[in-house]
Amino acid sequence: MTEKNIFVKLNFILSALEIHQLPEDIGLEVALCGRSNSGKSSVLNALANNKSLARTSKTPGRTQSLNIFSFSNDNLRRLIDLPGYGFAKVSKKDRKNWGILINNYLNKRISLRGLVLIMDIRHPLKDSDLTLLNWCEETNTSVLILLNKSDKISKNQSTNSRNTTLEALKHLKININAVVFSAKNHQGIDFLKKYLIDCLDVEGSPNALG
């Protein structure tokens, strides 16, 4: 099966407000995370070429649960959309609850194989992003950084942002890369697909998504 056919099979499975509500902890998962204004839902929709797969909102912070997506005939390979973090207009109580939920997921989920960390390319590496990257180093978790919304700046600015981001993170001893990305025009989408295929071992299981 070609890459372009794999991700159109993504389906929304369920939303979980507690860890125990997640599917059984077997198989392989990749988590999508980032600040509330980074465009996570738009990235998912671009990946699946389906504008209605993940709910998007003009109000950051709307996603308050773990949203689980899997392929139509393979629930052992999943994408987990984590609640966005760091949005100031969300109440302190909600921020605390989301932080506990994300922390529990990251530290208890055996199926987790990698993270896609989505940032606004104009405002990368906020404190909350760096905290998550430090966790990735401590746990030796692979991470792909998507510098999203590149359509809003010039090509030179995008390149400079990527170079600056990688330079700032070169001390981290983990498998890490940063990609200039646009959910709007699909720049960088092939790199994202390749990372997910590797983490989810799709090519190693040709019948799983057949």
Verbal overview:
The chain has a single domain (3-200), classed as Rossmann fold, CATH 3.40.50.300. It has six helices and seven strands. The chain has helices at residues 3-6, 40-48, 92-108, 127-139, 155-168, 189-200, and strands spanning 10-16, 28-34, 66-71, 74-81, 112-120, 143-148, 176-180. The longest helix has 17 residues, at 92-108. It is globular, with a radius of gyration of 16 Å.
List the topology elements.
Elements (H helix, E strand, L loop, with lengths): L2 H4 L3 E7 L11 E7 L5 H9 L17 E6 L2 E8 L10 H17 L3 E9 L6 H13 L3 E6 L6 H14 L7 E5 L8 H12 L10
Parallel strand pairs: 2-4, 2-5, 5-6, 6-7
Antiparallel strand pairs: 1-3, 3-4
In short:
The chain is an alpha/beta fold. The protein is 33% helix and 23% strand.
Features:
single chain; 210 residues; alpha/beta; Rossmann fold; seven-stranded mixed beta sheet; 7 strands
What is the count of helical runs?
A: 6
The CATH class turns out to be: Alpha Beta
Q: Residue share in helices?
A: 25-40%
What series of H and E elements makes up the topology?
HEEHEEHEHEHEH
Strand content range: 15-25%
CATH architecture: 3-Layer(aba) Sandwich
Instruction: Provide the CATH topology.
Output: Rossmann fold
Q: Please give the number of β-strands.
A: 7
**Whole-angstrom Rg:** 16 Å
Largest sheet: 7 strands, mixed
CATH superfamily descriptor: P-loop containing nucleotide triphosphate hydrolases
Structural class: alpha/beta
Could you tell me the mean pLDDT? Answer: 86
Strand order of the largest sheet: 1-3-4-2-5-6-7
Which regions have little confidence, pLDDT < 50, spanning 5+ residues? 57-62, 204-210
- Give the N-terminus to C-terminus distance in angstroms: 7 Å
The number of distinct structural domains comes to 1
Shape: globular
